TrEMBL record:
This is Carbohydrate-binding family 9-like protein. InterPro entries: Carb-bd_dom_fam9. Gene3D superfamilies: 2.60.40.1190. Residues 109-163 form the Carbohydrate-binding domain. PANTHER family: CARBOHYDRATE-BINDING DOMAIN-CONTAINING PROTEIN, SIMILAR TO POLYHYDROXYALKANOATE DEPOLYMERASE. GO terms for molecular function: carbohydrate binding; hydrolase activity, hydrolyzing O-glycosyl compounds. Keywords: Membrane, Transmembrane, Transmembrane helix. SUPFAM superfamilies: CBD9-like.
Length: 321
């Protein structure tokens, strides 16, 4: 773990804490509107109005690899075994513990960002087989990657069917020059205005979503450790293995010209979650969405709540015993 993040001076914590409390006070007074709360978009933003406590957002160190994993959904490579794993995901809204374990890990090399999920699931289920179908209507696993002015959404179910959307903050669409790009023109098929899911009054406003967009060169695979759609047995779960080419992710760097691939100690914001079609029985408060970094509201589309992923040039094999 990184000292920089875990030895935060008390005074900083206190400042964040006070800002957070003041914000909640302000939000309460303002009701539905956000009045004159100023929003200054930056990729490393600490947004005062956010429903997630900024000082509680997880930090993760992503190490480099020399040998690319085989993208087959099986996380049996030594690299994945050595990679730091997230704590088990918590409820997206309440932050409370969940009935099944979920972990994620990130690795990288100069060509790809690699992401893995370990998903405990006693009854594997999937129904959607069409690419860009509404995967969130199945039990799914989701990945969001944020740039300064845009973010990428990825979903996958136990069949390995995927859903991808690229979102650009409307206020940055023209000023950021996205409107002149081939994939993001004003007449692009699958382009729609989007206002979040359960947190509509996001102060940054609307996004423009591009549902037909694909992350070129993306490789994804699922390993189902059990039987899908057969509840006569009890399954162990599923694992997800992803390789996302930096050359395609580079579109997220447009806002702030961040390095592609990242440099040592660069920090990106990413969100890791799963959504289930079931909920744990009461009295558990299970929203059905579980995440590495809880958001405090029913909405994934909040980059200011995403996990901090810090890239390290150190090779993961240095941790081999
Ligand atoms: Ca593999
Ligand atoms: Ca798509
Ligand atoms: Ca089964």
């Amino acid at each position: 773990m990184n000292k920089l993040f875990f030895h935060v001076p008390l005074i900083t914590l206190a400042t964040f804490g006070i800002a957070y409390l003041l914000t909640w006070g302000s939000l309460g007074n303002l009701g539905k509107g956000f009045g004159n709360i100023e929003y200054v978009p930056r990729s490393m933003d600490t947004i005062k109005y956010s429903p997630c406590a900024q000082f509680e957002i997880p930090n993760y160190q992503a190490y480099k690899i020399s040998n690319a994993p085989k993208i087959d959904g099986r996380l049996d490579e030594l690299e994945w075994q050595l990679a730091p794993r997230s704590p088990s995901f918590r409820d997206l809204i309440s932050g409370s513990g969940t009935i099944h374990d979920t972990h994620a890990a990130v690795l990288w090399d100069d060509e790809f960002l690699y992401v893995a999920y370990w998903v405990e699931e006693p009854n594997l289920q999937a129904s959607i087989t069409e690419r860009d179908g509404l995967i969130y209507q199945d039990n799914d696993v989701e990945l969001f990657i944020a740039g300064q002015d845009a973010y990428y959404e990825f979903e996958i179910n136990a069949y390995g069917t995927i859903y991808e959307v690229f979102f650009i903050w409307e206020e940055a669409y023209i000023t950021g020059g996205y409107d002149t790009m081939t994939d993001f023109g004003i007449d692009e098929p699958g382009r729609r205005i989007f206002n979040g899911v359960g947190y509509k009054p996001h102060p940054r406003g609307l996004r423009i979503g591009f549902w037909n967009w694909d992350l070129k060169g993306l490789r994804s695979a699922v390993f189902a450790d059990g039987t899908i759609n057969d509840d006569r047995d009890r399954d162990r779960g599923w694992t997800v293995e992803l390789a996302l080419p930096w050359s395609s992710i580079s579109v997220l760097a447009k806002g702030d010209n961040r390095s592609i691939p990242p440099r040592h100690k660069d920090i990106w914001r990413m969100d890791f979650s799963r959504f289930n079609q079931y909920k744990e029985a009461k009295p558990a408060k299970d929203s059905g969405g579980w995440a590495w970094s809880p958001h405090g509201v029913w909405d994934s589309h909040m980059p200011e709540c995403f996990t901090f992923v810090k890239f390290s040039e150190e090779d993961i094999m240095n941790f081999k015993k």
